[in-house]
Design a protein that fits this description.
This protein has about 375 residues and is α/β, with parallel strands linked by helices. Helices cover about 50% and strands about 10% of the residues. Bound molecules: 1,4-dihydronicotinamide adenine dinucleotide.
Length: about 375
Amino acid sequence: MIKNIGIIGAGTMGSGIAQVASTAGCLVKLFDLNQEALDKAQTALEKITTRLVEKGRITIEEKNTIQQNISYVSSLKELATSDLTIEAIVENLDIKKKVFQELESYVSDRCIIASNTSSLSIASIASSLKNPERCIGLHFFNPAPLMKLVEVIPAIQTSSEVLAASQETIKSWKKVVAVAKDTPGFIVNRVARPFYGEALRMYEEGVADFATIDHAMKSVGGFKMGPFELMDFIGNDVNYTVTQTVFTAFYHDPRYTPSFTQKRFAEAGYLGRKSGKGFYDYSQAAVKPLPQDNPALLNTIFDRILVMLINEAADALFLNIASANDIDSAMTKGVNYPKGLLAWADEKGIDWCIEVLDRLYNEYHEARYRCSPLLRRMNAKNKTFF
Ligand code: NAI
């Protein structure tokens, strides 16, 4: 039974994960080198739980329990009694490795040592341990208490017992598990790339402006936010870095090529909401640009982004990155897509997907538009994903 949880790093993710674990009844020790981060995490939890009480989501007793279940510690040694530790510190392999080595010297042999990394390989992190079989990736989404998905990523070293116990624990925390292969971007950060990349590409080609592309994805596709609104929300610096990391990790596969437009926006300091200006202006006086309301154009934009997303999802299945169910639930539960992409492919027709992709490929002759072999094989046999 996994009851004692150690969390390393009390920033955005670590404090959110601590709340999730303590709400599920676990005893959490939240560690950070920086006392200010610990104080901030404690104050934020007080605010959040007070709001939950006001909204009637939890009782005062539950609020007290959630708070009492977490202790804020300033020494890694205090995590010695943990059954499971989850690391959420700065995204730097050397620093993570050092922390993992020190942690392993304190905890028992049974303790699972997990990382919440978004972009590093779990195999490389695990290699820092004497017992790498105990290491696994547990990738939460921001904000951790709200987003249902956790990608569970066994490294090639991870034991099947550690994988099973991790899945069981995450499910007991009322989260949805998607098991992903230890490959760049895991599921979500790989499959979601065309949502941004194809939108930026169409903008660069002059197909439409930001507002029209966003409007197409929302009005035709039912997405809650358009690509440019979402990039502004995530931050152009952060989103660009993820794209760049995935591109490099895939040995420069042209499908993941980053965009100069986004690079320039990041370089200019037009980071999005957090800097007051990104693809849109967030100042008080700003007038929101109106999209073009041309149904044919909106459908063309939506079809092109959707088919690129479907192709990415199909290719992830083709390469056994995850199961069809897990790929679809990752996108609906991790990034709130209105529908799973493989289910969407079934609905549109596999033949339709191939036709749109081949049309793009024939026009551009660029490898980014190559159709996944899986779609062709399925079409030849008249198969669907579900
Ligand atoms: P953050 O910057 O908000 O928090 C990091 C915390 O770690 C800081 O409080 C810092 O003081 C602490 N820290 C740094 N080095 C430390 C050390 N050696 N020992 C103890 N504490 C240390 O970062 P954030 O956004 O919470 O990200 C943490 C990890 O989670 C990264 O690996 C990131 O890739 C991953 N991640 C981030 C997501 C996000 O949307 N922010 C989503 C999913 C994963």
